[in-house]
Amino acid sequence: MTTAVALDALDLAALLCSRVCHDLISPTGAIVNGLEVLEEKESDQQTKDFALDLIKKSAKAASARLQFCRLAFGAAGSAGAQIDLGDAHNMARGFIEDGKTKLVWQLPPALLPKNRVKLLLNMLIIAGQTVPRGGTIEVSPIGEGQNIGFRLVASGPNSRIPEAIPTLLEGASENGSVDAHAIQPFYAGLLARACGLKVELKADGEAIVISTR
């Protein structure tokens, strides 16, 4: 039995902010740790080189996540603005590809309404959650023009549909509430309905298909 989630604008904003902060904790924490190692006088050169490499990689990861989150959760321009799918592709690649996961982008160049692009990026986040050990996420179009939809196929070891996500996409949960961990798929459902779409997940052999209709 599930219950529709009633969430006011302030709570939605607070939970989305918490989600963004959660995504940034790991790389920023690694940067701080690396700086602390560099400041230790007893650290040998090999350790300092390792710390410097960690700082560089973590700073790059933090920047990629910030840019992605700004587009996926932020205003990204004025009301009615359009977003270039090429920009979305670059940010998605920086966010998704981490040495374990590969992004295959088959969408045509286009300018689309911002909510439709934000929906695509949020679908990518969900796709990443379906392949916890990494794999391949293939993005292809459904239809064409301004009303284009999206089909994502995520394949990898132990691919699965997280139990709560389909319900959250529908705007409901078991107890009628959401926390910072659950807010992202709930928000993706809000975006889908704002676009007049619905997001569905289904297993297809060893892959998970996430598509709009």
Structure notes:
It is a single chain. With 213 residues, the protein is of the alpha+beta class. It has a single domain (3-212), classed as Histidine kinase-like ATPase, C-terminal domain (Heat Shock Protein 90, 2-Layer Sandwich). It is built from six helices and nine strands. The protein has helices at residues 9-39, 45-73, 85-96, 114-130, 165-169, 183-194; strands at 3-4, 82-84, 101-105, 111-113, 135-142, 149-155, 172-173, 199-204, 207-212. The strands form three sheets. Strands 3-5-6-9-8 form a five-stranded mixed beta sheet. Strands 1-7 form a two-stranded antiparallel sheet. A hairpin with a 2-residue loop joins strand 8 and strand 9 (207-212). Helix 1 runs antiparallel to helix 2 and helix 4 (114-130) runs antiparallel to helix 6 (183-194). The longest helix is centred in the first third of the chain and has 31 residues, at 9-39. The mean pLDDT is 94.
